[in-house]
């Protein structure tokens, strides 16, 4: 398991993370590796300093450009589903500030991640370097295209909500691979896990969620 370098982050931050982990356990998160990752990865380093005092609240927070750092419960829930079958190679669509990337990087051998907004791509690269993540590989591009060069993937996680399931991402799953994503419009979304069985795809609806919309193309 990969661990970020946490030297100098302080006991106050550690106690806050421990309280957050206890709250996530009460909410039903059971995977010990996911809980340890939430405890280990310093969420406050992935957001603006003005909001860092709220980093260990169980809430989504803005990171600029109309984007958010997801609620810790949702990060943990999606990660728990993604790593249930111990995937080696995971594709993340929507790097954002890099927090979900860092969580997955502590749990998987290799994480590939795509971000469509150039400034977030650059920010995430700096954040991941700062916390010592060395097994995450970034790409600036359109998440709807996936990353064909490195497909197939054991798991794919999408951190924004498309209105329909992207077929390109389904085709980039390995046999038995799992796609975890929110699907829906601005008023109603559901978190969905889809497992590939040959040319068939088994769907499992998990819970209601609220994510920013998934957009195509790229932006500065």
Number of helices: 6
Helix content: 25-40%
**Unreliably modeled segments:** none
Largest sheet: 7 strands, mixed
Shape: globular
Quote the average pLDDT.
93
Computed structural class: alpha/beta
Give the CATH level 1 class of the domain at 60-209: Alpha Beta
CATH topology of the domain at 60-209: Rossmann fold
Tell me the span between the first and last alpha carbons. Answer: 34 Å
State the total count of DSSP E strands: 9
Known CATH architecture of the domain at 60-209: 3-Layer(aba) Sandwich
Secondary-structure blueprint:
Elements: H1 11-26, H2 32-40, E1 61-64, E2 67-69, H3 72-82, E3 89-93, H4 99-107, E4 110-115, H5 118-130, E5 136-140, E6 153-158, H6 167-171, E7 173-184, E8 189-197, E9 200-209
Parallel strand pairs: 3-4, 3-6, 4-5, 6-7
Antiparallel strand pairs: 1-2, 7-8, 8-9
Helix pairs in contact: 1-2, 2-4
Explained architecture:
The protein has six helices and nine strands, in the order ααββαβαβαββαβββ. Helices cover about 30% and strands about 25% of the residues. β7 and β8 (about 190-195) form a beta hairpin. The longest helix is centred in the first third of the chain and has 16 residues, at about 10-25. It has a domain at about 60-210: Rossmann fold, CATH 3.40.50. The protein has about 220 residues and is of the alpha/beta class. The protein has a seven-stranded mixed sheet.
């Amino acid at each position: 398991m990969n661990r970020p370098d946490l030297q100098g982050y302080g006991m106050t931050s550690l106690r806050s993370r421990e309280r957050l982990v206890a709250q996530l356990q009460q909410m039903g998160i059971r995977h010990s590796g996911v809980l340890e990752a939430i405890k280990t990865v310093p969420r406050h380093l992935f957001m603006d300093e003005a909001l860092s005092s709220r980093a260990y609240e169980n809430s989504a927070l803005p990171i600029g450009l109309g984007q958010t750092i997801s609620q810790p419960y949702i990060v943990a829930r999606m990660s728990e589903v993604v790593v249930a079958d111990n995937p080696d190679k995971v594709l993340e669509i929507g790097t954002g500030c890099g927090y979900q990337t860092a969580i997955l990087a502590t749990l998987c051998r290799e994480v590939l991640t795509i971000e469509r907004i150039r400034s977030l791509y650059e920010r995430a690269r700096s954040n991941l370097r700062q916390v010592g993540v060395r097994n995450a590989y970034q790409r600036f591009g359109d998440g709807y295209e996936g990353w064909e060069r490195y497909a197939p993937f054991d798991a794919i996680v999408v951190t924004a909500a498309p209105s329909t399931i992207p077929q390109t991402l389904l085709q980039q799953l390995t046999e038995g691979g799992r796609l975890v994503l929110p699907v829906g419009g601005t008023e109603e979304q559901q978190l969905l896990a889809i497992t590939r069985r040959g040319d068939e795809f088994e769907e499992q609806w998990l819970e209601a969620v609220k994510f920013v919309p998934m957009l195509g193309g790229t932006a500065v």
